[in-house]
């Protein structure tokens, strides 16, 4: 079976590609440049079951048409992971909203034009940002479920980078569900979405450990490497999930009938920056005196003031336990220290 993975060089997407290849799927990945394609092919040992196609700009009109013209009859599953993640911008429409929404619409329109009868399942990588209302982050009485939606509109989310990012994820996911409803008589595919919260975990390839990591992993990276900005992250709080669990969920989303038409919310509970400090200080004594300590053990009190994410329906569908905060932080930190020659 052939699976298309958009944005194949991404942190999560690399794990998805790896898991697909391990299960003997043929994988077509889209990448933004030939340089990225060459690097990814090398990472995967020039696996003959991995083909890469260039899609320089997912928001450009007809961005995915050439890929589906070439492979449309073969593709049975589409995993759309490509989406902008930059929050350090004031060009909210240009850098976040338009690429996220149009990128999703473009890949679905390409399926409609060239693979309406062959693609059977589509999984869109959304986010818990499409689920939660950021204005309620300090309210411990709030409970979010798979039915919850961020109330953001195109206009209301253009306040700052974080609001615009959250809005872009909500609006892109909503566009996917709208597309299925409006084209039910044209396309045969069934839709599922995967909505992860802060995604921690090691890079799939050690070579991908750079000075700065993806926005979620940078929380751990800044701490482990003693970066000055770690000081300003001490108020950080949220929920977490391990990247390896996110990858598994993408495969389950198209392999399991129970996932059809479902939003899979991926969270394994709350964390605070203090929790990260406690784990790293305890498990990596070589960093003692070189990294933040904070107020050990105080994170648990903050957990009580945070909204709850009840993803029991998702856990029942997936049927596997998620990795603990300790495991995901330890694996992330150990890889960074190995890269720096400190392990």
UniProtKB/TrEMBL annotation:
Keywords in alphabetical order:
Oxidoreductase
Q: Which residues form a coiled coil?
A: none
Asked if the keyword Protease belongs to this entry, the reply reads no
InterPro entries listed in its UniProt record: Epimerase_deHydtase, NAD(P)-bd_dom_sf, NAD(P)_dehydrat-like
Per UniProt, residues of the NAD-dependent epimerase/dehydratase domain are 3-260
Q: What GO molecular-function term can you cite, just one?
A: oxidoreductase activity, acting on the CH-OH group of donors, NAD or NADP as acceptor
Q: Does the keyword Ribosomal protein apply?
A: no
Which protein family is it in?
A: Belongs to the NAD(P)-dependent epimerase/dehydratase family. Dihydroflavonol-4-reductase subfamily.
User: What name does the UniProt record give this protein?
Assistant: NAD-dependent epimerase/dehydratase domain-containing protein
Organism per entry: Torulaspora globosa
